[in-house]
Amino acid sequence: MKKNLYIIIYPYKFTNFIWELNELDSFLKYTDVQVLDISKIINFEFSQNIAAKNIIRNEVIYISTILALISYIRNLKVQSSYSNICIYDEIPTNSMICLTIKLILFLYLKDTKIKCFNSFNSGVPIFYSKEIAQNKNGGSAKIVLSKFFNLLKNFTNTKEFKVKLFFYFSNALSNLIPSFLTHHFIAGKHYKIYAQKKNKYLKRVIFGHSFDYSNYLKLRDCAKIKVMKNNKIATFLDGAGPLFKSDSFYTKRSVPFTTEVWYPTLTNFFDFLEKNTGVTVDVAGHYKSTHISPAPIFGYRNVIYGETLMLVKKSDYVITRCSSAISFAVLYRKPILFIFSDQLIQDNEVMRHINGMAEMLGTKPINIDHFSDDINNYLKVNEKKYREYENNFLTSNSSGRQNYQIILEDIMKIPTDISL
């Protein structure tokens, strides 16, 4: 009987949050699991500056050189003759080192029976309503041009421009590198259209869910927790910055909002919400941060890690700048307050996401430096918009299976005992 092995090649610091997001405990019931953390090869400085700690598990292998990675892949090729192996490729295409690794993978894996897939399932839009309309009738060239024009419009300094220009050309060059992939994992109509435009010759498409939707299914299928209204709780979906390093550190982006201004303004807004809507605001901590709880920086409010789904489920509404965890608010039909500030309005890229998401969900963002006393106009759910968001960005599969089941059954051909 063949040995089963599921592998994730991960380019950033691999944390406990990422382990859980990928449902790896569930995979372990059916197959061996290995995670290759190659962050030291791809983005050592960025990974070192992320506050969250590396996960320490036997399944996680830290690879720090190209030679060590080649040695691992060569051994994998040997194993493929007697093992059922599947690789989840999360390597981006935004640098020459990434493209080099992808080429190495192609050269070693092209004649094997190893299944390899990438994913389009982040749960957030790649393009927003106006951009979708502009690109509707275009192909991959139009998508590339759109990204280039966004680059020209939205850079904040010379360093960021150089980094993103290099990202742009690396992404364009990636189309010339032969692919070792056998499958694409897609969640939502939006990603299917994007994947078809980006990849002229799609491999086999597997339909699944965003990470958050899959975890929503897990809770739905476990012990039921009644969703009650008027719990008098609101959840703030925090980002890593400005106190902790975020993705802007990787792209060298100059972030115009500061710890000294943002957090007092935010705390003042929370005070207003608690007074006027009768809630207590809890903070869902971002996995790249390490706030203490209760946190002085949030006005001594609770900061809770690893329980975002349950926090949103029990909340009367959700507050966010722009977080992929709005998926939970969409699924549980919770009102979402998108917020920005006088500082953030200077950041075209951030405002693109905030305005774009708000428009797609039928609401408008709130400037927390100049907000209205009548907040109730924002505490509404546009059912049609929420349903469209769910279908476009969160799921393409109606079977009720979680992602780990879909990957095991539809790619690795391993039956699970809870198939539906």
Number of domains: 2
* Rounded mean pLDDT score: 86
How many strand segments? 13
For this structure, the CATH topology of the largest domain is Rossmann fold
User: What characterizes the major β-sheet?
Assistant: 7 strands, parallel
CATH class of the largest domain: Alpha Beta
Uncertain segments are: none
- Side by side, the strands of the main sheet go 3-2-1-4-5-6-7
CATH architecture title of the largest domain: 3-Layer(aba) Sandwich
Describe the structure.
The chain has two domains: 225 residues, Rossmann fold, CATH 3.40.50; 169 residues, Rossmann fold (3-Layer(aba) Sandwich). It has a seven-stranded parallel beta sheet with strand order 3-2-1-4-5-6-7, sandwiched between helices. β11, α15 and β12 form a beta-alpha-beta unit. The protein is globular. 42% of the residues lie in helices and 15% in strands. α5 packs parallel to α6 and α8 packs antiparallel against α9. It is an alpha/beta fold.
Short description:
By secondary structure, the protein is α/β, with parallel strands linked by helices. 42% of the residues lie in helices and 15% in strands.
Blueprint of the fold:
Blueprint lengths: L2 E8 L5 H6 L2 H4 L4 E6 L1 H4 L1 H5 L11 E3 L3 H14 L3 E7 L6 H14 L5 E6 L8 H7 L4 H15 L3 H16 L9 E4 L2 H10 L5 E4 L3 H11 L11 E5 L9 H5 L7 H19 L2 E5 L18 E2 L3 H7 L2 E4 L5 H6 L4 E5 L7 H13 L5 E2 L15 H12 L8 H9 L9
Parallel strand pairs: 1-2, 1-4, 2-3, 4-5, 5-6, 6-7, 8-9, 8-11, 9-10, 11-12, 12-13
